[in-house]
Amino acid sequence: MFSRFFILILILILSFPFVLLAGTYSGGDGFFDPYQIANLDDWQELITTSDDWDCHFILTADLDLNGITYTQAPIAPDPNNLTAGFQGIMFSGSIDGQGHTISNLTINAPDQDYVALIGFLDGLNVNRGLIKDLILKNVSITGRDYTAALAAQHYNWAARIENCQVFATVSGSDRVGLISGKADSGTIDSCYTVGTAFGTIRVGGLVGQNSAAISKSASHTIVENSGSFAGGIIGHNFGTISNCYACGNVTGTARVGGLIGENQGTVSYSYAAGQVTAGSLVGGLVGSGNSADVSDSFWNTETTTQPSSQGGTPLNTEQMQNPQNFLDADWDFINETENGTDDIWTISLCTGYPTFPGLPTCNDLPQQAVPISIDDTLTGASSNATGTDLTLLGYKDNADVWYTFNCTTTDKYTITIAPQNFDSTLAVLDDEFTEIIFNDDFFNGKSAVILKASAGKEYLIRVAGLEEQTGDFTISLEQGSVQAIQGDLNYDGTVNLVDFSIFATNWLIDM
Length: 511
Prior knowledge:
The protein is mainly β. Helices cover about 10% and strands about 40% of the residues. The strands form six sheets. It has a 21-stranded parallel β-sheet that branches. A seven-stranded parallel β-sheet has the order 7-10-14-18-21-25-30, with no helix packed on it. The chain is globular, with a radius of gyration of 26 Å.
């Protein structure tokens, strides 16, 4: 009798720790088998269970946070600004997004510091403080100091942010960026940002103030800083920057650069191409710092509007679009081995500049639309593009790229998409962002529309793929009705005489 009782008690004692460790997530144990975040209930458990902030997590589905507004960092907020249900400790676990998206994250905390998805990311040990393969889309963050979309402070030597994409508007004061407000150490690798970063000092498209090693990362973020230290990638840099580029416009008062505002670290194999505006200590690549610490890097003198920089080599647009200038500086491109075999760089189909394989195309958001003029024929690609389906009947063509046409003469204009390997769609939106014309690829495998355009108006042209198909294409714009157009003009799913009647009465009549 005693022995049976003893055995029962022993079983309960041995199993008790595992009962304590077991969460109610959609799976996993948080250690050897990461906790699975599959829905909003799992997400809520993560953000309210600070005891789990040293555990490992994976996303197994996209998360839509629409309708939720946080008033501080959901995970590991500032310990000096606690509210009920949160404890002031760092997040020292890991989150593997597995390519999934967290969308519509909104944080409104204008009087708080350390505001982001994660307030403190602590990389105390190997495989700790790791965020990877995560996409943040349609994000709005408002904070004070140390404000970002992903991690307010990137802390300790092992902290890593890898292969993350952030599409966000971030507003703060000191140390503001889309990836991190302040990166004390660790690494940021293969990250990409699109959006806007507002601040008063130390503002960057990726990181506000940096002491980490940043590589193979790009920013198409607009940086607007009312004070000093503003850069397309970094506002104030003490770290190591290699193989990075920035194409967003940068504005500040002093110590402003297309890539880095002030550099006290090192920069190599990088470039800047966005417009740079400042009162003093301004540069196309680097605003201020030691030019000797910048090597094999460039800036576009035409698009940055800056003739000088604290380091780097000036190039015009034509030279920026000549790969040989980068090859001569030992940049490692795909399909060449003389400069290395890591295949870091490729050439963008839409800008002709170096970019990274697998990144979204540079003009896949309306605010990044590429200008197209009469008689232009441009090459493009929708592979890896992102966006929202804007067609009237929901054609699910949300992998899109954008072009803009500034009309100077009232007339009819023919726009044609010639896809190489996918089923393309074509739409035109007016200056109020209303879709006015749409066509599938009914015209001999091409998508074509005739636009009745008015002088003085700007039109957005949207190229996508039916059912989210992607591929390469050419887009051309010609003045006049140069070909007959057929297609589903009334969005009823069929091409019939009604469509031709619409075409004849609305698009071919004289203006």
